[in-house]
Design brief:
Number of strands: 17
Strand content: 15-25%
Distance between the termini: 57 Å
Mean pLDDT: 90
Structural class: alpha/beta
CATH superfamily of the largest domain: NAD(P)-binding Rossmann-like Domain
CATH architecture of the largest domain: 3-Layer(aba) Sandwich
Number of helices: 16
Radius of gyration: 25 Å
Helix content: 25-40%
Amino acid sequence: MYRDPVESLEPLHHRHAAIRTLRVGMIGIGTVGSGTFRVLARNRADIAARAGRSIELVMVAARNLERAAGIVGDSVALTADAMHVATHPDVDVVVEVAGGTGPARDWVLAAIAHGKHVVTANKALLAVHGAEIFAAAREKGVIVAYEGAVAVSIPIIKALREGLAANRIEWVAGIINGTTNFILSKMRDEGLDFAAALAQAQALGYAEADPSFDIEGIDAAHKLTLLAANAFGMPLRFADAQVEGITALQGVDVACAEQLGYRIKLLGVARRQAAGVELRVQPVLVPAAHLMAQVNGSMNAVMVKSDAAGLTMYYGAGAGSEQTASAVIADLVDVARLDGVHAAQHVPHLGVHAHATNALAVLPRAAVHTSHYLRVPVHALDQIQAIAAGLAERKVPVHQVALAAERPGVGPQVLVLTGPVEQGALDLAVHALQARAEVAGPVTTLRVESLEG
């Protein structure tokens, strides 16, 4: 039967007008939670227009209720019981921004069991318990969104899942920890040693009183685990990641890298290989002219190599209250749009891909194939050729050999840049080099990443 176009639009108009507000319960009202409240309140109309419905914070769980009341006022119900928020019938989606991996797991699983969507910025929770959480979400047909858990203001999860959906991802590499990037920038720009740069980061609020998760590379590994799962459709494999922080990095190596035309960055790398996936976090040398080497201070950047789009790069703030809130609210907008549609139309959860990459193993350290930087202390300046010859004997390709510039209190140093070689073969070569009479101390090695297409 023919229906007048104007008439046919009327029911649709009424139907959209009847869409109710998305009611949000939030667990935690610290740095990220308070930023989320402020941005939701300030940009309420714009957010509603983009989401197609209003998004309202209706309940908050906090340890300090007096402080929480000072942030949210009288418009939001407050409770000290996080489980009350996770299970309350008047909450449609739970935002978990309290952190940690113990109680947070229980809250999130309880929310899912009660049919609620979940938004979280808690990368540790997902890296450790993600398999269980995503399985529960699939069973209940709800969304678990986590853009803010990976690269703060950079919408890299959305880029991998949507913008690059047509592509086969070959590798993802990123500076995904603002604290360590700030420290490395200070070591290079001001010539500070690691301890002095860390102290400055703590004084300025870029590093926690206990900075272990950041400086040991654990935070970056949590995020890399999520990136790899999205890029390759593989399960979360945090326990298998190779993780090396920057605590042992010396100022002399930062200076020597500059001498050779490189800068040192703590890089997370997930690269697909025929035998498996490289999953590693470590300080590496990046060519000084490369865009990734220009990412300084607390900023983050992620580069993706895919078959159709080629190289793409994403840059933004690596820390901050409202910067993280931006990602949390973007996830809420996605939930608002998808809530009520068939579960199969939701953005896919991790680890549900049926294709063969689910079976990909994480390559062991010895099998990783990269170029390397070596700094070899020697007894005399004329021993440079002996060092090169010692590496050649072990079939390590040598691309460049140089003497380090003289520095107060530092003896003669030979600098070597190798061609690509497996880590296991390099380790054996360095062990043999260490035994040579010309070598005056421990040999320092770092990987080199070209980040080329």
